[in-house]
Amino acid sequence: MTLTITKIAEDLAAGRCSSREVVDDLLARIKAHRALNAFISVDEEAARRDASAADRARGAGGGGILAGVPIAHKDIFCTSGVKTTCGSRMLADFVPPYDATVVQKMKAAGCVMVGKTNMDEFAMGSSNETSFFGPVRNPWDRDRVPGGSSGGSAAAVAARLVPAATGTDTGGSIRQPAALCGITGLKPSYGRVSRYGLIAFASSLDQAGPMAQTAADCAHLLSAMAGFDERDATSLDVPVPDYAAALGTDLKGLRIGVVKEHFAQGVEPAILDVLREALREYERQGAVLVDVSLPNSSHAVPCYYVLAPAEASSNLARYDGVRYGFRAAEYRDLEDMYKKTRSEGFGPEVKRRIMIGTYALSAGYYDAYYLKALKLRRLIADDFARAFERCDVLAGPASPSTAFALGAKNTDPVSMYLNDIFTIPVNLAGLPAISMPAGFVGGLPVGMQLIGRYLDEARLLNAAHRFQEATDWHARVPAGI
Amino acid sequence: MVACHGSTLHRIPLLNAEDIEKVAHLARLGLTREEGQAYAQDLSRILGLVSQMNAVPTDGVEPMTHPDEAGLRFREDVVSGEIDRDRLLAVAPKTRDGLYLVPKVIE
Amino acid sequence: MEWETVIGLEVHAQLKTKSKIFSGAPTAYGAAPNTQANVVDAALPGVLPVLNGEAARMAARFGLAVGATVHKRSVFARKNYFYPDLPKGYQISQYEQPIVERGRLEITTASGEKVIGITRAHLEEDAGKSLHEDMGGFTGIDLNRAGTPLLEIVSEPDMRSAAEAVAYLKTLHTLVRYLDICDGNMQEGSFRCDANVSVRPLGETRLGTRAELKNINSFRFVERAIEYEVRRQIALLSSGGQVRQETRLYDSARDETRSMRSKEEANDYRYFPDPDLPTLVLTDAFLAEVKETMPELPDAKRRRFCAQYGLSAYDAGVLTASRELARYYEEAVEAAAVEPKLVANWVTGELAARLNEEGLDIASAKVTAQALAGLVRRVADGTVSGKTAKDVFEAMWAGEGSADAIIASRGLRQISDDSAIEEVVRQVIEANPKQLAQYRAGEEKVFTFFVGQTMKASRGKANPAKVNEILKRLLAP
Fold first, then answer.
1. C209 to chain B, minimum CA–CA distance in Å?
2. B79: which chain C residues are within 8 Å (Cβ-Cβ)?
């Protein structure tokens, strides 16, 4: 089954179907695949109403390619009047009074929101098992995880419940689930997409991006999502290219850096075979492979597990039961209210990271942990700068393994953290990267990660698109879907 | 999977119950004894991972707080955006007469 | 033993921006609870801060005014702690890299001039307000003030007496109003002061353990709180006790400081650079603009008043106490076009007394600078005597019109014509032969009797100098 934005837009334009029909069909599919637990909330009535409105608007003429196209938002984006939980008991009943900039922009482009997708609590997790609303199941094998934290978005797209969904990526939360679910996901450069209304995990690393079946669809979505926002001081005031228009450039002479450290032990050998075959496809299209090294990237995980929890410990201090969200039922006094509210409202992984971050920033440890990590961050970013002197994009695995079994890594936080070993360095450096289906191992999808220069999303999207024109990994559909 | 650099063995910090209690208090998290013990173990393991940073010499390296090193943009000093107290307070657990309510704070 | 007092002050000056430091909400004082707070101020999930450029401009203006280094790069940091009126669970402030460092402020006390060092001044956001009264066992939270821009100005521990501390505060208070960066309203909390106070044996160079005094919201209370605290510490140390490093609250009703009851846990604020706010960078162009638009500062204005208007240092000091008063004086001088000293006498005399009596500031004076100039001109040209002019001023204050109109309608024009005065004097002398005889017999004090009678006969309008002169001539034997 093909469920791409490009196809839907063609059908809508040709009058072969209406937005309302597409939405009705998808709502039925969402119901049928409820067991995947990909959604936290679905507002059928609103989706149907908005789809009908989109149909009327299209009848009146105008509207871009996304007009009337159904999408889902990760439940980390605030949606005015629509429950936004961030996968947490803390916000289980929270209805924001405002829209995130990304949500506003997608609305403005004509997208119809069908629901909010499941996610790891406060985006902290790599398996979607930390969600207060239960784990998401991988459509390729329901006993396996979809990856995380944007696991609901990845599973929804993979199961063809929506053509596209938004995600956020702090250490790999778009790319790793995209890889594990066999879809395409892009983490834009830091500052490319506004963070306003995106519930913060680690502010200097968080970035929103599109998740879809194809790179071409991601290009359309990014064009709509990206751009300067005066409400976000870290948003970049630079022009946004028409990413879709840039697709189709041939790859002759494209220098692809093969990261030595990413093709090393610790990655399932079969995954490396799949990636080598993918690189051969690039060579067939005229790209040139260059060996590069990112010597400090092995320190990225330790560095990240200081910086991200440190920022998170502060970002999550606002959940105190005073102005919104969960408040414990019984308490003796203010201190007791704080402690009960926060220990009952947050799940174990969130508390673990708050503890780590609080410790790393506390008196006597700041220099040894936080400051040290900031210096390593510089070294890691410098590695990328050096590598990009010799190549145009970097290639490697998006994840060291294919989808693992539910519960397999729950007991050991450290082994869970190491899932993101290839994606984390990219967030630390603020660079754009895409994950796309490159083959299968044991019936499970394998994702290839391409990393680009700062603000060079167009080149990444084009490189992924050219690969997808020559392969059909991205078009494979899980059994039973 | 994370490579160990050099031959130096880095001392892994071990957290005791008192450390955990102090950190939990700073973060306003109420932990049971069992939770405290579990966190002490987890945190010690994570700090073990994190301590691998010590293998890298970073003398003279400029800390990188932010991917975008351009300066802070200024907002103009104008009153903007909407204020809707009813909507703001509608999501609060406890309010009265336009105020958020919390258990009495003792000064 | 002789003791030395050591005082350092931390002042929080609320900056006079229209909108908050990191949100577009208004900063008006006194509005209904939570009607000046938007989603950013209430720290809803997902909201972000964006810096109000005017706050940075005001901080830079202050830095230049106190001769400090205004850093081209400074960093916003998060100060993490839990309190119900602190919505984010952290305060955005500046920590390791503040915008202003190393300035100085010259103060004048009875014992002379002194320079007080300013360690730093940094930008930060204010918290909301906790209301403990009448809430039936709860505390109510009002976020109207949350996010109001503050400039925290930290002095060196350079002050040695409560009087110096007050002089420093008053000088700073005048300065921030001159710079138009703070309205200085202490009752509304726009200008707040904490004092770090310690004592040490005279001659000792190390600092004693200090107490931090909070909640002192007037100049008078600053003086009293410090004096009380100094007595307390000296008594404590003299009796072999020790001063505890703690925060103490000044209770103005009881005129004493007392330890804050909240348990003295060591605060660990876990400062770190705010990842939502990149480095604050001030360009050369920005700083040049701030320099160009810098108003004349109190010191310079005082010196200019002495030189340009020939005023005493004292008068110049009084007239430059606020920018508004100085402007009033200069407008009056220009309109009157008479001896500036005479105008100064009126402004610091009758006008100041009247304002003081009615508790008004210069902006609400009921006699404008132009109107006052009209009166002073009539004193200078001899139309009315100084004494009569005071009555005219009262009438002007009561809204009876201009000086000229009042002089005309009440017939207060002074008689300076020699022949007219001579006529009156002759009548007075003729009517009082007994006193004339006494005077001529050598009783000179009778002279004042004749002056009084002459003034009475002229209904106070005769020019007193001329009356004297003519009386002397006609009384002579």
1. 23
2. 18-19, 24-26
Residues, chain B: 107
Residue numbers of B between 37 and 76 with CB closer than 8 Å to C: 65-66, 68-76
For A108, A112, A225, C447, the CA distances from A5, given in Å and listed in that order, are 16, 12, 15, 113
Asked if C130 reaches chain B (Cβ–Cβ under 8 Å), the answer is yes
Separation between Cα atoms, residue A349 and residue A120, nearest integer Å: 9
Q: Do the domain assignments include residue A344?
A: yes
C70 DSSP assignment:
E
Interchain contact, A266 vs B53, CB within 8 Å: no
Nearest to C280 by CA among C7, C22, C10: C22
Q: Which of B100, B101, B102 would best serve as a mutation to test chain C binding (most C beta carbons within 10 A)?
A: B100
Q: SS3 for A106?
A: helix
* Interface size between A and B, measured as CB pairs under 8 A: 177
Q: Could you give the CA distance from residue A152 to residue A128 in angstroms, rounded to a whole number?
A: 8
> In whole angstroms, what is the distance from residue A444 CA to residue C98 CA?
53
CB contact under 8 A, C38 and B73: no
Q: How many domains would you assign to chain A? A: 2
A107 in Cβ contact with A74 (< 8 Å): no
CA separation for the pair A227, C189 (Å, rounded): 41
Among A375, A398, A424, give the residue marking a domain's end.
A375
Backbone φ and ψ of A394, nearest 5°: -110, 145
Distance, CA of A24 to CA of B74 (rounded, Å):
46
**How many CB atoms are located within 10 Å of the residue B94 CB?**
14
Cα–Cα distance measured from residue C379 to residue C393, given in angstroms and rounded to the nearest whole number: 11
CB contact under 8 A, C270 and A197: no
Dist CA B49 CA B43 (whole Å): 10
Contacts of A237 in chain B (CB under 8 A): 73
Residue of B28, B77, B94 with shortest CB distance to C53? B77
Helix boundaries (H) for A196-347: 215-225, 269-284, 300-315, 334-345
C359 conformational bin, left if phi > 0, alpha if psi -120 to 50, beta if neither: left
Q: Same structural domain for residues A71 and A206?
A: yes
From A375, A404, A434, the end of a domain falls on A375
Hey, what are C423's tokens?
Answer: 């006529």
Query: pLDDT tens for residues C254-275?
Result: 888 888 755 445 689 999 999 9
Please write the tens of the pLDDT for every residue from C90-121.
999 999 999 999 999 999 898 889 999 999 99
Question: Domain for residue B78, yes or no?
Answer: no
Strand partners, A259: A292
CB contact under 8 A, A322 and B43: no
Domains and CATH numbers, chain C: 3-288 (no CATH), 296-409 (no CATH), 418-475 (1.10.10.410)
Q: Complex ipTM above 0.90?
A: yes
Q: Do A311 and C268 touch (CB under 8 A)?
A: no
Measured distance CA(A41)–CA(A98) in Å, rounded? 17
Q: How would you write the pLDDT of chain A (481 residues) with one tens digit per residue? A: 679 999 999 999 999 999 999 999 999 999 999 999 999 999 999 999 999 999 999 888 778 999 999 999 999 999 999 999 999 999 999 999 999 999 999 999 999 999 999 999 999 999 999 999 999 999 999 999 999 999 999 999 999 999 999 999 999 999 999 999 999 999 999 999 999 999 999 999 999 999 999 999 999 999 999 999 999 999 999 999 999 998 989 999 999 999 999 998 789 999 999 999 999 999 999 999 999 999 999 999 999 999 999 999 999 999 999 999 999 999 999 999 999 999 999 999 999 999 999 999 998 899 999 999 999 999 999 999 999 999 999 999 999 999 999 999 888 888 888 889 999 999 999 999 999 999 999 999 999 999 999 999 999 999 999 999 999 999 999 999 8
